[in-house]
């Protein structure tokens, strides 16, 4: 129940709906019992067993509530019988219809209220999960499959609705139905009711045995679903490679193996779950059968129970079966839902190691310099950067070059605080970036990555990620600076053109220029360019390079370069090797040194 308590807190904003549901369920349970009891006077009239009473019963002279109710009913029937037996029967049938109508009216009302509560919890749960998914650091997802996260937000949340939240429907209605019914059964015949309760614990024990392994089986199903969703997500993302390498069979085999395991786990889980309803019904009918024998003895042999009361009693006893079945089914649902709740809460309760400090500063603007002060960093075991120091004065362009794995892109990840340094510190205007709010830090930065990350939307909406309230004129101006307006204005709908999934309708150079335009529109004082031209052909590179030079005017820029031809105008070039600076200077100074930088330039020239 620990997970249930944690999930149920999401129901607090909808407590008025919960109260409405509880009130409606109380009346449902009450009229559900009265509906069955109302059959008794009708049966009395039909069997002619009503004892004529012409004087209105007095409560003070009655032995108990049962005797008073019977006498009052007989008085009413006697009164109406004087007008004719048919009239009495019409009144009795009317009474039965009214009771069943009220029962079903309150049933609908209870479901009406619970619908808002269930769907509200579902909405809030998904929103919290999505917010947490965005809030968690990038390092969290380097160890997780994307498909598994998608499965938690979709199918696991639905499982919560089908299991935990279904209990909210039962938590008042079914127990109250059972309580009201049992009270009425005791009033009819205490002896017969005690006999029933000898068999109920045995039934409950047998039913509970079925549900014990449901959580474990459900956990396997949900994990496997996350795995095959991951394969699907990877397949869609890498379709060109899969087709290009004729790897359809490899991925098809992996996917089929996963769906086969899902098939096996699901069958095992559902067969166990499906056993619940027939088992509880069979055990219930067994109890009813024993009741028929024992109650029949009381009616036919002992003559201690009226036939019409016994039939009403049997109706009440059978009425207990439905809520009892629902409660046993819900208990299986809780066990099944526990696995889903555990997976959801794992994300919700994960602490973000990069969260803002309580007294974090909201920095507005950039005044003097960025400093990397003796920083060291490792992703896992081996340090990528070791005791690294560098100063980037305001308005200067600093380029980082070096072989793959030398730590260039890591510096971009650290200054944007996608990761935190293991030791040392990074400062902006002599303030440690850990002391700044992440939002205000990233507001100072514009990022252009090697892979132009665009979204399946219009050019305008992709641009507005940089500046939410930018005007159309400002968007067009940013596109011109990024050398992108020339192709955008030729598109059928201009900036309102949808660019497809990941910008698939555009060429590599066009996508990169759009991502530069987005950074220009944001107009940040600091630019971080992570190998922004390395994936482009020569012509596209030339266009993008002009766009980058336009963008970097009057800005502080950290440029991570693979193609050295793009950074010759930088104020300083820093050469990295295994996380350490081995050379530093301007382009011509480094060539004169005849060191590593010159070798890199010569290698690219030969290439």
Please, what is the CATH homologous superfamily of the largest domain? ABC transporter type 1, transmembrane domain
Q: How many H/I helical runs?
A: 23
Structural class by SSE content: alpha/beta
Helix content: 55-70%
Number of domains: 2
Cα separation of the termini: 65 Å
Binned strand content: 5-15%
CATH architecture of the largest domain: Up-down Bundle
Overview of the molecule:
The protein is built from 23 helices and 10 strands. With 607 residues, the protein is an alpha/beta fold.
Structure in a nutshell:
The chain is of the alpha/beta class and 607 residues long.
Describe the structure using short key phrases.
single chain; 607 residues; alpha/beta; Rossmann fold; four-stranded antiparallel beta sheet; 23 helices; 10 strands; transport; membrane
Walk me through the topology:
Layout (H helix, E strand, L loop, with lengths): L1 H7 L6 H23 L1 H9 L17 H17 L3 H51 L2 H5 L3 H17 L1 H25 L1 H21 L3 H24 L1 H6 L3 H27 L1 H26 L5 H42 L20 E10 L4 E11 L3 E6 L5 H8 L7 E6 L2 E2 L5 H6 L1 E4 L10 H5 L8 H10 L3 H4 L19 H15 L3 E5 L7 H15 L3 E5 L11 E6 L2 E6 L1 H7 L2 H11 L1
Parallel strand pairs: 3-8, 3-9, 6-7, 7-8
Antiparallel strand pairs: 1-2, 1-4, 4-5, 9-10
Helix pairs in contact: 1-14, 2-5, 2-8, 3-5, 3-14, 4-5, 5-7, 5-8, 7-10, 7-14, 8-9, 8-14, 9-13, 10-12, 10-14, 13-14, 18-20, 20-21
């Amino acid at each position: 129940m620990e997970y249930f308590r944690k999930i149920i807190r999401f129901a607090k904003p909808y407590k008025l709906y919960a109260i409405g549901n509880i009130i409606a369920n109380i009346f449902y349970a009450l009229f559900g019992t009265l509906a069955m009891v109302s059959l008794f006077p009708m049966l009395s009239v039909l069997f002619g067993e009503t004892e004529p009473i012409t004087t209105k019963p007095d409560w003070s002279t009655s032995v108990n509530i049962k005797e008073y109710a019977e006498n009052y009913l007989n008085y009413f029937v006697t009164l109406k019988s004087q007008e004719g037996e048919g009239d009495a029967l019409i009144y009795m049938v009317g009474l039965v219809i009214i009771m069943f109508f009220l029962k079903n009216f309150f049933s609908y009302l209870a479901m009406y209220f619970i619908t808002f509560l269930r769907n509200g919890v579902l909405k809030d749960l998904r929103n919290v999960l999505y917010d947490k998914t965005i809030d968690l650091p990038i390092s969290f997802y380097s160890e997780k499959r994307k498909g598994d996260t998608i499965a938690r937000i979709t199918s696991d949340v639905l499982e919560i609705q089908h299991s935990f939240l279904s209990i909210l429907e039962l938590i008042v209605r079914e127990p109250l139905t059972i309580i009201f019914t049992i009270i009425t059964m005791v009033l009819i015949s205490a002896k017969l009711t005690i006999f029933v309760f000898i068999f109920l614990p045995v039934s409950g024990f047998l039913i509970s045995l079925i549900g014990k392994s449901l959580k474990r089986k459900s956990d396997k199903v949900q994990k496997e679903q996350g795995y095959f969703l991951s394969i699907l997500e990877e397949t869609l993302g890498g379709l060109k490679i899969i087709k290009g390498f004729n790897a359809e069979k490899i991925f098809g085999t992996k996917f089929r193996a996963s769906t086969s395991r899902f098939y096996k786990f699901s069958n095992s889980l559902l067969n166990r779950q499906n056993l619940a309803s027939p088992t509880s019904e069979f055990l219930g009918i067994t109890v009813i059968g024993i009741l028929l024998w024992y109650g029949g003895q009381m009616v036919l042999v002992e003559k201690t129970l009226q036939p019409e009361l016994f039939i009403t009693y049997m109706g009440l006893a059978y009425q207990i079966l439905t809520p009892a079945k629902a409660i046993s089914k819900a208990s299986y649902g809780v066990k099944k839902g526990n696995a889903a709740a555990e997976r959801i809460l794992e994300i919700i309760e994960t602490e973000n190691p990069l969260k803002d400090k309580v007294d974090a500063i909201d920095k507005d603007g950039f005044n003097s310099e960025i400093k990397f002060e003796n920083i060291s960093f490792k992703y896992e075991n081996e340090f990528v950067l070791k005791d690294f120091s560098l100063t980037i004065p305001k308005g200067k362009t600093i380029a980082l070059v070096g072989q793959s794995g030398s730590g260039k892109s890591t510096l971009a990840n650290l200054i944007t605080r996608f990761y935190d340094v293991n030791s040392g510190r990074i400062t902006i205007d002599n303030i440690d970036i850990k002391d700044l709010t992440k939002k205000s830090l990233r507001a100072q930065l514009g990022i252009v990555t090697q892979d132009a990350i665009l979204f399946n939307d219009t050019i305008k909406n992709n641009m507005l990620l940089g500046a939410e309230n930018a005007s159309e004129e400002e968007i067009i101006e940013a596109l011109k600076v990024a050398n992108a307006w020339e192709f955008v204005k030729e598109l059928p709908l201009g900036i309102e053109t949808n660019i497809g999934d990941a910008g698939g309708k555009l060429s590599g150079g066009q996508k990169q220029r759009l991502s530069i335009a987005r950074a220009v529109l944001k107009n940040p004082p600091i630019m971080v360019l992570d190998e922004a031209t390395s994936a482009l052909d020569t012509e596209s590179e030339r266009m993008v390079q002009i766009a980058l030079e336009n963008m970097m005017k009057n800005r502080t820029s950290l440029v991570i370069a693979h193609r050295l031809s793009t950074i010759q105008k930088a104020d300083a070039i820093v050469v990295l090797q295994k996380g350490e600076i081995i050379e530093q200077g301007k382009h011509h100074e480094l060539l004169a040194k005849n060191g590593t930088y010159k070798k890199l330039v010569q290698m690219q020239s030969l290439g």
